[in-house]
Amino acid sequence: METSGAHLCPMPIATGKLKQQLRVIVFGASTPSGRLFDLVLLALILISVALVFLESVSEVRERYGLALRVAEFTITGLFTAEYLIRLWISERRLAYAVSFYGLVDLLAIIPTYLSLLVPGSQALAVVRALRLTRIFRVLRMLEYVAEARLLLVALYASRHRIIVFMLAVLAMVTVFGAIMYLVEPHEAGFTSVPRSIYWAIVTLTTVGYGDIAPVTPLGQAIAAGIMILGYAIIAIPTGIVSVEIARQTERLKQRHCASCGKDVKLADARFCPHCGKAL
Length: 279
What we know:
By secondary structure, the chain is an all-alpha fold. It folds into two domains: 2-138, Up-down Bundle (Four Helix Bundle (Hemerythrin (Met), subunit A)), CATH 1.20.120; 154-264, Helix Hairpins (Orthogonal Bundle). The chain contains eleven helices and two strands; from the N terminus they run H-H-H-H-H-H-H-H-H-H-H-E-E. A two-stranded antiparallel ribbon has the order 1-2. Helix 2 (10-27) packs across helix 4, helix 3 (32-55) runs antiparallel to helix 4 and helix 9 packs antiparallel against helix 11.
């Protein structure tokens, strides 16, 4: 029994070494092998997105449809293997599976398999373009990731004001739509309140498709007022988010040194300017 146990012991050790080597390659962007793996992965992502674009062109699909499908399933197979490897070598598998990158990696492979049941759903594979965000890690542009995180924090902090603003806008377009339904004839395109609300949204956002247009003087006067109001409204969410970004930036600058307890106003400082200790 002792002899058989000695023979079985190297297997877990070999598996552990393999996992460690794969972690260096898959997650180690600072290592040569990890950097090469990420560059190859980015190239495959670009190729797969290009395949989706080409397959959507009827002339290309009719001529090279089979070759495009074979290439698509080949790349999807590689992405599937990569996803399973990431799950296998992750120390916290559930944390990776529900993380942003984990969900994007999963969504990147589902559309191709779904296309076997629902033809045309492979076009959803363009979600793989989100995986290109790994280029920030490959090119060591982590400061851009920090700036993106700052923007997300500002948007989250402004969510209540943005929701109130959106509800106010919805109330406005509903009222304007109902008024235009009463003022304008059905022949002008205002055949129902929902369709009139659609016109109010298009007009308020200054898009102006032109598929529906008022013909009465009163309706045109109301439309002119909505257009002018639209220019004023567009600036409101921008101001809300800008104020919150400035507030979050100022908050990041207000750091304290754990050693001397003094304020450190330089956001990118790594050492305390007062005592010289690492922050």
